[in-house]
Amino acid sequence: MKFIKYISILAIILSTSLASSQIKFEAKVSKKKLGINERLRIDFEMNKDGDNFNPPDFANFKVVGGPNTSVSNSWLNGKRSYSKVYSYFLAPKKRGNFKIKQATIEIDGELYKTQVVNIEVTAAVKRPNDPHNADNIASDNIHLIAEISNTNPYLNEAITVVYKLYVSTTTGVSNVREIDSPKYSDFWNQIIKNKGLKVKNGTFKGEEYRYVEWSKAVLYPQKTGKLEIEPLSLDITVEVPTNRRDIFGGRLMTQVNKRVAAGSKTINVKPLPEQGKPEDFTGAVGDFKFNVITSKSELNASESLQARVEVTGNGNLKLFKLPKLNLPSSLEVYEPEHIENVKTNIGGMQGSISDNYTIVPQYKGKYPIPSISFSYFDINTKTYKRVSSGEIVIDVLDGPTNSSNADNNIATINGNKKQVVVNNDQFAFVKTDANLKPVKPTHFFKSTLFWTALLGPLLAIPLALVYRRKRDERQADVFGNKVRKADRLAKRYLSEAKKALGQKEAFYVALEKALHNYLKAKLHIETSDFSKEKIQNILTERKVNQETITEFVSILEHCELARYTPITNVEMQQDFDKSAKTISIIDKEIH
């Protein structure tokens, strides 16, 4: 009996293990030790189809490909073999020992899990010497290069950076994604937008290649010394040939995911020479022309004319101040309007900037506008140059004569002082007839004031209860309180920006805070979520006009750039007015 009992138990154990061995779900990796510059492939394989596949979170890895799904069915000696695989391609984020946790799937109502996989990520490794390895082929045939026009410029001299992606003629590219963009710290920068990627033919290290200009930027260094340009990184799906061939003999292609970087570049920025530097030099670097132009030279008093101080040419037009007009005190002059008509292309800034003054003469006569000069550093000759305007005479033909000199003469005739005559009637303002009238007596009891004092507290009780309930509801509304607080902060910072007009650093710090707090109030996003792309996406989703979004983002960018550029009071006022106007427009358009 005992023997039969043992046989039965053994049969049960064997049948159970046989049943459990029928279904497999396991994780397989291409390698358990890899360099940080390598890629890892992980396959989740099962021998029976299931539902609700749930992969692990892949902490410490970035998914650069997948999931790719493959299914195979085969029959061998009358037995069916089934396999389904979910494949992922992973790029490690840092070095260390990591665990890839369990994946799960439901098969026939049962939940199955893979085992935990241990992965070691080491420092970057050299590629194995395998000419047929797809990764090696992709690395040898894809190159991202940063071409810099001048690595040793002067302060505020324009340089260009062109990023070129080279692809060999035997390799294809099916997808390119930018994963890390340079920030260009310590540079005034302008990204030159491509109107479409045009494939061109060229050579790389003496070999025939095709290439595209992925992006271009114009930079104006704002500090001297060694400045670093951060690398650009791209994630690329590369199609490379394999040793396998199709039925017609043609070589089959395979896809490999590669990450390429242009590498950081160092720019050595030279200071402008001190020798010969004019005292009124404000930082203009380039090739410029200077003019002072008036809309008219003859007019009547109380009519107005326009005087334009203008610089045209190529150079850092947005990064220096124009000289001020010196006008006679008898001409009424309004604060100038600053106008920029500047385009930035691969050659740098080109166009004109001007200050437009409105002048109103008060009296008849001839008024000279003295010559003023403008100095700049000529980047071609490497010397300072000065350009002066001619003297302009404004002829006021008709109007009153300036009598200020005559009045002064009358006040000091012959230099003699006039004797003060004392008025004998100096106390005439004191009234001697008071004209007093009796006051009628009033009774407080049953008067209007009596009933108000009696009934007022009784009427105030329900109002106090309503107020308390509303206050409690308001205090309980945590989200609403955060929105109202951000709104109040935006108004306060905007008022602080207005108070700080004329103080560049304090003004732009307060203005930027006001814009951020306005977004927190209107869009319900936290400070940590602020980025230009995030702001653009949210405003677009809320149906805000694209022109308004562009204007808002340009104000934020200008707040950042203003710390490196000279700014006039007029420009600060224009930025303040533009901010208030843009906020008002967003309030009207947002949904």
From TrEMBL:
Coiled coil: none annotated. Pfam families: BatD (PF13584). The chain crosses the membrane at residues 449-467. Keywords: Membrane, Signal, Transmembrane, Transmembrane helix. The keyword Signal applies. The keyword Transferase does not apply. InterPro entries: BatD. Residues 1-21 form the signal peptide. This is Oxygen tolerance protein BatD.
